[in-house]
Amino acid sequence: MKTTQGAAWAVSAADGFRLGRGCPYQPDWQLSDTVIAAAEAALLPPVVPKTIIGAGRSYPAPGVEVPDIPPVFAKLPASIIGPGQNVRARPVFQSVMAEGELVLVMGKTLRDASRQDAENAIFGVSAGNDVTGLPIDMERLLQIKAADGFGPVGPCIATGLDINTLDISIAVNGERIASGNTRDHAYGFGGLLSYISQYFTLEPGDIVFTGSPAIAPEVVPSDTMTVEVTGVGRLENSLL
């Protein structure tokens, strides 16, 4: 979060935000006694990842074929923005698609990990919008998935949740378009992370967009996209 004192990690408190020292998924993390009122702070992306992996076709749906192996792709650090920040429309895209997803935040290093070790390495979860440029062009997968600002995440990192029973919904201009539940994830989050770790080392703070469980609406400039995840909250961004 951003305060008059600069950027800092914080924990939500009844009367605002309690600032911390260090990073919550690192061993040097400590809470301070300083509390900032909510009105005096602005939320930044709750993650600062070096590696960002996304997964596609992770949920069964009419007309969607779920492959035996998770299709994965990369997003770039510059794609990550926080709650309330605008996604910039680009003339190279006809429009964009909003995909409401659960985002896994790593708390331990993963490399060639088993499913169980992968599950144990999850620090917490957030809500994410895997913005995708249209029309879909698999030969330009990096461009349509990883453009600047195409990875809103927030509003927080939630810990202690049963991540296999979370509702996820996507709304456009306040109208809910679709919803789903993480219990229907085809690979399981441990399975997805285990597969990813066979190719890419994930470090504490790295994130994984786990796929959209519902319809991904097309949006145009001036539209507001809202992703909501049980226990995490609402992530709202506008396309301008």
Features:
19 strands; mainly beta; 9% helix; 240 residues; seven-stranded mixed β-sheet; four-stranded antiparallel β-sheet
Strand order within the widest sheet? 7-6-16-10-11-13-8
* Helix count from the secondary structure assignment: 3
Report the principal-axis shape: globular
Over the alpha carbons, how many angstroms does the gyration radius reach?
17 Å
Low-confidence stretches: none
Instruction: Please report the distance between the alpha carbons of the first and last residues.
Output: 23 Å
Taking the sheet with the most strands, its summary is: 7 strands, mixed
Strand content: 35-45%
Q: What is the SS-derived class?
A: mainly beta
Total strand count, please? 19
Helix proportion of residues, in percent? Answer: under 10%
Describe the structure.
With 240 residues, the protein is mainly beta. It is 9% helix and 38% strand. The protein contains three helices and 19 strands. The protein has helices spanning 115-120, 141-146, 189-197; strands at 2-3, 6-7, 10-13, 16-21, 30-36, 52-55, 72-75, 80-81, 95-97, 100-106, 122-129, 132-134, 151-158, 167-172, 175-181, 207-209, 218-219, 224-229, 233-238. The strands form five sheets. Strands 7-6-16-10-11-13-8 form a seven-stranded mixed sheet. The chain starts with a strand and ends with a strand.
